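Subject: Sanity check before I submit

Could someone independently write out the structure tokens for this chain? I want to compare against mine line by line before I put it in a report. The sequence has 257 residues.
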Amino acid sequence: MSKYEDISVQLEKGVVRITIERPARLNAFRDQTADELLDALRWADAAADARAIILTGAGRAFGAGYDLSTIQPNETPDLHRVLERHFNPLIREMRATRLPIVCQVNGPCAGAAVGVALAGDIVIAARSAYFYEPFVGIALVPDAGNTLFLSRLIGRARAAPMMMLGDRVSAEEARGWGLIWRVCEDAELRAEADRIAATLASRAPAALAATKRLIAAASDFAIDVQLDLERDLQGVAGRTPEMKQAIAAFFAARKGA
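---
Independent answer below. Compare away.
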């Protein structure tokens, strides 16, 4: 297993715990973060003694979406390339791995991090957590599988305003909508994730892998088409004047903070 900068990986009693370790940036994803997660997932998938995965974030957030500070102030980002090379392979691997993934959403979960969380098989959240789709507010379109997962999990009537208006959705509301499996008190979240993962690790690996494959066949059909469409439309959105203005405003706000 490689040495990572943006994540940590531990394997104990059949459970691989992967933690995003960028708390100073609220675990905002850069390209390297997605690449390291992909590598860790592939390592876990190949590890004979791995039975389940827990994915979570260090500190007070699960993930703040894409780290805009990685874009130069006057740069026109090639978001088509970012998705094609970094984020779409991660989402595909999460859905394809034989291992069940428990996403332990320990705090705010925004943008691409929502797609990553929903790519897991069982999603639990701290009561203080919330889900947030900021894309349209910065002249972009939802990506990282968000348009597929949200539309299929909660339906168009809820997915459309969530993605178009960008209102925060509390963990409790997300559970009521069927977006996540369970809400836990903050202090109890890790123990609950550990309990679920230990149960999964005790189950027959072949049966779990086959069940995951069947669920994917039923619910993830056309995921490749949707990821490619998100990639193409995000590439267009990333070159618009509105997006450039949004990036300029982001850096102006940072400078004035």
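---
OP: Matches mine. For the report I'm noting this point. Strands lie at 7-12, 15-20, 52-57, 101-105, 109-110, 122-126, 130-132, 169-170, 182-184.
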